[in-house]
Structures are given as C-alpha cells and as structure tokens.
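PROTEIN ENTRY
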Amino acid sequence: MSKFLTLPDQKLTTMPGGVPFIIGNEAAERFSFYGMKTILVVEDDPAILRGLQELLTAEHFHVLTASTGTQGLMLGKKENLDLIILDLGLPDVNGEDVCKQLREAGVPTPLLMLTSKSQEMDKVLGLEMGADDYMTKPFSVRELLARIHAILR
C-alpha cells in the first residue's frame, strides 16, 4: 500500500472508488463523502448506463445502477436515494410500472424519466404516473445535469 505524507493541517481521505487524495483539515470538516447525493440510474442499455455512471460520478454524485426494472424497484424501495433516473423500455418490468409501484409503495424520491419515448402523450402519462421530470433520448448532457441540479435544489 502506498504511503502519503500529510502536513499537520491536512488529512488523507479517499474519493469514491478508493482513489486517495489529501485535503486541508478545514475542508475535511466541511466536506463529507457521506453528504454526497445518491442517484439510482435504471437503464438497460449498457453503454448509456456506463456513460451516465461515469458522468454523474465525475459530477460528485454517488451512483447506483440497475439494468432491469426488478433491480430498480428493489433498490428504489431499499436505498436512501436523492434521485432516480429511469428508462421506460426495460426488459422485464417496464419503467412506467416501476414508477407506479414506487409511488404506490410511498417512495418519495424524485424521479426523472429518461427515455426514447418522445410523443407528447408519453410525456404527459409519465408525469401523471409520478415522474418529476421527463427527458427524451438522445439528450444533452448539459441539459440533463441542469435538470438534475434543479430537482435536487
């Protein structure tokens, strides 16, 4: 294991993934990884899932992932989440049913639907089912981040 030399006013800590870094003690008092917002991404496309995970991790979010509706439901009910990003076209339980079941179970976590369904009626139904926001694919990374930050305010 590598050793790190810290000055009296510094603290060694780690980023998500175990990457070590040094911060000043004053910053350490104000900054806690436990204070990171946790986002669950439910997406069946591995490339999109990986891309979202990397993007959100780089933006200092703690990211949980699920590639099926069943996994998404389990994590959505079990974990203390700040946001759920949900695809609608999932292989087992579709995203609409995941949203509906989470809301019926009393899960208050804000939910952003991110899907290729772009018809006005799809958007209206998604919002009426309990989604807090709705974005269509393909999507702008900047817009997605702006919407995430707005939801988490």
About this structure: The chain has six helices and seven strands.
